[in-house]
Amino acid sequence: MRRLMLRSSLLLVTVTATLAATALPAAACGEEDGPHGAAPTLTGTPGAEKNVKAVGNVPDAQGAISLQFLQYGPRDVMVVSGEFGLKTYDLTANPAAPKLIGQLNMPGMWETEDTEVDPVRKRVFLSRDPRAFGGNVHNGESGIYVVDLAKPEKPTVLSYVKVPAGHTTTCINDCQYLWTGGPAKADNMPAEWGGRPIWVTDVRDPRKPKVSPNPIELARNDGQTDYVHDVQVDESGVAWASGRGGVRGYWTAGMHKDPVTGKLRMASPTDPVPYAGGGIKETAAPSKFMHNSFRPIGARSKDGGGTGHWDNGNLIYATEESFVDGCAGDGVLVIASLEGSYGGEGWRSTPQKPYRLNTVGTWGVAGQEGSDPASSDCSAHYFDVQDKILVQSFYAQGTRFLDVSDPTNPKQIAYYRPADAAAWAPYWHRGFAYVADNNRGIDILELTR
Fold this sequence. Notes:
- This protein is mostly beta strands.
- About 5% of the residues lie in helices and about 40% in strands.
- It has 1 helix and 31 strands.
- The strands form 7 sheets. It has an 8-stranded mixed β-sheet, with no helix packed on it. A 5-stranded antiparallel β-sheet has the order 1-28-27-26-25, with no helix packed on it. Strands 2-31-30-29 form a 4-stranded antiparallel β-sheet, with no helix packed on it.
- A hairpin with a 4-residue loop joins strand 11 and strand 12 (about 175-180).
- The longest helix has 16 residues, at about 1-15.
- It is globular.
- The termini are far apart.
- Residues about 1-30, about 30-40 and about 300-310 have low confidence and may be disordered.
């Protein structure tokens, strides 16, 4: 035990001391993104808001990238990850006024996007991008920190393990395993790869994580192994991997028929069974780089499901992250149909015979009410859905609330765009939308419509 405690202490000292002066600002999550020095940028016009009330702000969380929530009996705790490492806040007494209670100092950390927590074992998994602590994608070190939050006042590193990928990491099978993907490939990876796929880590023993040597989710971009950006697990247990080449879903447990081979076999985190999905049409997402996704279970179309059969989980919502000059061509929210992809079509796609999901609807922030026409930082980013209201971050264009009850026609119903916005990720919690803003910390918003 003393040896383990000493190892954790040394790790913390090393992390805290590593390049404390490194500046890591808001940046895109695509292949070229990464830490670089920049100050919070004011946009060309004043801020704008509609049908939203800002009820709170947490400025000491500046540099925030992601957040989650843990319950300790009646106690409600917010876990925030970012350039500073990790901070915990108590929301129990007043969810609009978070109280800082704990901190794990890791200045220079990158990127911790979509940080995941184990709600039962009270752990958090921080993904270290190769660009963290002054590194780079060519030969930088990447990996996963397993942090114990049994006592939210005292976040404690249980272990750190090197992983060939490190942009995002996702809980699989109730956080017994992790899937870690991205970013762009390292110099020692195969020349034909377009980016890093997924590596699987067994964290059943959190002090001794075991990384599988063989990556998965290969050949995802019309047969080419490419950048897997993030993974989201839906309510039925299907893990959806988003990245360049679209969105593909996998079973990670249980017996399932493999649509690619036609054989019945057992799915596991290291050998998942394909389910559905594929590329997104270039007319909707020209970059082909899908950042994250969400599959609504039981969603119905406006006409009751008769058109498109959207009532059986046949929709996939996905964000394209892409930046071009100006805003008009920047990444959008895409809603696509999974129909026609359950036979393994997304795994047989080639440049000669590409397979694409049919687009149902799209929404982009460029030119929308409340937008800043002078800003060139307006790609779609993370989103969260509750009761057919989708809340989404659009960097300098702030936080947008969309009514998606008709997926063919998403409609903006509210927005919140401070002049210094760098909105990265919103989360519904206790009736509020908590927004991880890389410039502002945490904004706490109430929809008033």
